[in-house]
Amino acid sequence: MTGKSHDRTRSTWKGVETRDFKDVSVASIDANIRQRLEWQGRKVDLPAGRYDTVLPSGSVADLFTYMMWVSAARDAFEGQSVFSKKGGGTRVGEKLSNVGFQFFSDPDYKQLPASNFVSSAVSSPFSSVFDNGQPIKRVDWFKDGVLQALIQTRASAALTKLDFTPIGENAILSVDGGAGTLEDLVKKVENGLLLTTFWYIRMVDPNSLLLTGLTRDGVYHVKGGEVVGATNNFRWNDSPVSALNRILHAGATEWTQPREWAGDMSNMATPPLVIKDFNMSTVSPGS
Prior knowledge:
Blueprint: E1 2-4, E2 11-13, H1 26-39, E3 49-55, H2 57-69, H3 73-77, E4 101-105, E5 139-143, E6 146-147, H4 154-160, E7 171-175, H5 182-186, E8 191-205, E9 210-223, E10 226-231, E11 234-238, H6 240-243, E12 247-250, E13 254-256, E14 268-270, E15 273-283
Parallel strand pairs: 3-8, 7-14
Antiparallel strand pairs: 1-2, 3-15, 4-5, 4-7, 5-6, 8-9, 9-10, 9-11, 11-15, 12-15, 13-14
InterPro entries: Metalloprtase-TldD/E_C, TldD/PmbA_sf
GO molecular function: metallopeptidase activity
Pfam families: PmbA_TldD_3rd
């Protein structure tokens, strides 16, 4: 839902996932939008730089969806991705996060039902028509911050000598000890930013998974655990793999809606996160 001020100078957005709208509170969405429009009545100009940044669960989903899209084991084995090991092989078994980071797919995850067998119309580094009908079970991509698996076909599994771990239709991310809401995380930030959404996310460097994109729908300055006003939009440059090692705080995992990739990956549950030193590389002109 998009909300605008009466004079049409301010706008923001709120999205939620649902199957039948029985669990959607329009009043709650409306209150959230009104609060953000009120914040936008106070303007604070901030320069580009690195900020402790509160990411809503939807923005977290947008970042880590891209990480999944470059997680093909064959690409990593051939030295073509952020998960390639220097000197050859993959980074499976390497600790990449500073927290108890869990990331998995599970066809039996109650809130996000998914197919339990491979069904592929075309072959790619992520799937093979020759694997059709093979069972899909729970796969822990990350466990306790350690990379456990990459997306495999049976052919790539034979090549890499790792387990056959086909891509699933859902993705669940959690952080040990994560609790509370987005609003609870804001209270933990002394000086930083609260984002609404990301947009125009693109790859810059596959070797580090450096991404670039824009903020959208409202960026807010947080000081002393409170939102003190709205600030300008930014172009950002950062890597979800690098961000894994800069998690300051995490909320509770929730079924969420990505903004950029809503049409590609809606079967996802993530927590809101606070990322240390998120790189806002330039102020976005005209914002």
